[in-house]
């Protein structure tokens, strides 16, 4: 499946990122790991956090990206992988995720982009 991605320069982006297993509390139970992953990514790939809400099984974020770098997907990939590396692997993974070496923690983000 191909996802359509917005390409708005200096845009403001809204994200909802969900856990696959919605009954887990991974994000709250490991919020310090999530904070560290976001901080690390922000240092390498700067962006401004306008809002960030962490709930037990999903999060919402509003970011403003720099005018010369609207690549939010690399930022989310690095945040999710940085978080996932520090969480004990005990989730179920399907054959596709196993073959790609992916964890079974995250759903794809839902994106909205707004002109600034």
UniProtKB/TrEMBL annotation:
It comes from the Bacteria. Signal peptide: none annotated. SMART domains: Y1_Tnp. Residues 8-108 form the Transposase IS200-like domain. One of its GO terms (biological process) is DNA transposition. GO terms for molecular function: sequence-specific DNA binding; transposase activity. NCBIfam families: REP_Tyr_transpos (NF047646). This is Putative transposase. The lineage of its organism: Bacteria, Pseudomonadati, Pseudomonadota, Betaproteobacteria, Nitrosomonadales.
């Amino acid at each position: 499946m191909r996802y359509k991605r917005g390409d708005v320069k200096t845009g403001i982006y809204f994200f909802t990122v969900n856990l696959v297993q919605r009954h887990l509390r991974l994000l709250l139970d490991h919020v310090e790991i999530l904070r560290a992953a976001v901080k690390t990514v922000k240092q390498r790939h700067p962006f401004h956090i306008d809002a960030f809400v962490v709930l037990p099984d999903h999060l919402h974020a509003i970011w403003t990206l720099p005018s010369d770098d609207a690549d939010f997907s690399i930022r989310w990939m690095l945040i999710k992988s940085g978080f996932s590396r520090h969480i004990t692997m005990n989730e179920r993974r399907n054959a596709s995720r196993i073959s790609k070496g992916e964890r079974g923690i995250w759903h794809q983000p839902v994106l909205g982009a707004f002109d600034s």
